[in-house]
Amino acid sequence: MTVVKNQNNELIPQRTVTGWRMSIDYRKLNAATRKDHFSLPFIDEMLERLAKHSFCYLDGYFGYHQIPIYPEDQSKTTFTCPYKTFTYRRMSFGLCNAPASFQRCMMAIFSDFIEDIMEVFMDDFSVDSKSFDDCLENLEKVLKICQEVDLVLNWEKCHFMVREGIVLGHKILERGIEVDRAKIEVIEQLPPPTNIKAIRSFLGQQDFIGDPSKISPI
Prior knowledge:
alpha+beta, globular, Rev_trsase/Diguanyl_cyclase, Reverse transcriptase domain-containing protein
């Protein structure tokens, strides 16, 4: 993570891109795959539970790759590069059921803690509490589970014992939830919506804007 100044002289955190990720076109395989409809958590509810607490961010290291693929199914992930052919032994990006499979696995691992002392959205884990000491105790419980199941975390993206930060694209802090300033600049440059679908898409952001009608009355 690096911090840069925008045109208004505000400090904006930017994620530093390091390394490469392999992305395979699995459209034909996905079309023949029976879909797993395991749902992801509601982001707005998760953020509400995290707001006004001390918390820690934990990030799974190469999340999908921590899930092994059954040996008899590994050949289905085969892809070809110049002069060589490879097969994944661990879950790859691009597989249609990867998000559902990963979320189900994480929910099973942390089933005793979810919505109590932590929130889980894919490979983003947030441990929270109303006090510093309780948060430290909760963090110890979660890290112990990670050790027991060999769940590897990315230390570069983990933040411990903080009162504010960016979670799933939104800023969580003592007074509640705010939109990430880096995304406000993008919204300001968007053209006005011209159809119902575009209006609904934009209005979806209002859950994270306190009293929007007072800020800018219609």
